């Protein structure tokens, strides 16, 4: 019998775990008591780490303990999930602590592995120094060619495009001449986002001087060349790849041949009562923060409905939202998945997906959702955007339609960003830190990520708002 309040255990410290925590807090309130099991005490906003090697951004870091304890919503256990005993409804930590649950949400993420021997694998912040060194070599001329590659077409592709475009921007600023390639097995670049996404990124790559090789699967790196499956090669002194992901194979839980957990369209782990999974740990083939948040929302609604909250839980029906850092004005993309591997229909029993989102695939320089975060979580995005991180924003994440009109020119974009940052500085100088933070939100919407010095100021100004009450 379910205890009152329901004992919910969330395993993980990433996007799906935090979104689950926030969603349950909003939907179920004091009907739940939540325990978060996490081996890390901080949440690093990983999608922005692509900008760190180029000095164009700094990934924010948030205290997980503050998030978990907000409004007394839960308690943290700083450990990893070792195993699950579903029949006893007990989660076991690596240290051997046994934590009983009425509902368990497994959101432990995936394990990144190197995909290509001889290539630099970019996983996030830990790989920033190595990437910075490679780009410095390109600028200095000691590396004459650099290839960025996507190992598989069933991966989230945006980071590899961002890395190529940011490297090209750095090359242009340094007036260097090295060659930059983007090699992808996709038939069309960013094909997940449909024709508008492909057209937009093709134009950006061409304008940046990045050479595109589509429909080409990387096989190995050998003798300063990226050898392609089926024959052919791209000659490059250095190769940068995204990682392949493996599931954690948690004892007591079912998993597929790659270690990922199969779930239904409400996140229930197949064959187990009271056990759910969300995010990269699941068998859904696309691994991305916004999709992880959508899966977490489906789980939270299913649990809330079980508790008697008057709502009809919606199944996970993925909508892709991508904010692409370019070295200039960002590109906002939105669509339903245009092409999903066959495995998607096995892992998720969702309704048939249309080939295009309402209004078609969209690619524009204007924010297509608000807050305009790289991780478009319904509860996470407004929570992290608010100046008072102890409170959820007044409205959850919402989609927007683009406003007709020509895009900003590069000069107009630079002027708008400079003016917005200047406004933030002036508001802070006058002691109005709330308005200063709002100006930084606007600057982030313009640029996709704040310059490192302004990320530091944002932390300081948020602290000033807390102190001021």
Question: Could you tell me the radius of gyration in angstroms?
Answer: 22 Å
- Which outline best applies? globular
CATH homologous superfamily title of the largest domain: FAD/NAD(P)-binding domain
Count of discrete alpha- or pi-helical segments spanning 4 or more residues:
12
N- to C-terminal distance:
42 Å
CATH topology of the largest domain: FAD/NAD(P)-binding domain
Total count of domains: 3
Uncertain segments: 341-359, 387-393
- Beta-strand level of the residues, as a percent range? 15-25%
| Helix vs. strand class | alpha/beta
- Helicity, in percent? 25-40%
The total count of strands amounts to 25
Structural write-up:
With 469 residues, the protein is an alpha/beta fold. The chain folds into three domains: 6-110 and 246-306, FAD/NAD(P)-binding domain, CATH 3.50.50; 113-244, FAD/NAD(P)-binding domain; 410-468. Helix content is 32%, strand content 20%. The chain has twelve helices and 25 strands. Strands 5-2-1-9-20 form a five-stranded parallel β-sheet. Strands 11-18-12-13-14 form a five-stranded parallel β-sheet. A three-stranded antiparallel β-sheet has the order 6-7-8, with no helix packed on it. Helix 1 (15-27) links the parallel strand 1 (6-11) and strand 2. Helix 11 packs antiparallel against helix 12 (452-468). The radius of gyration is 22 Å and the shape is globular. It starts with 5 loop residues before the first strand and ends with a helix. Residues 341-359 and 387-393 have low confidence and may be disordered.
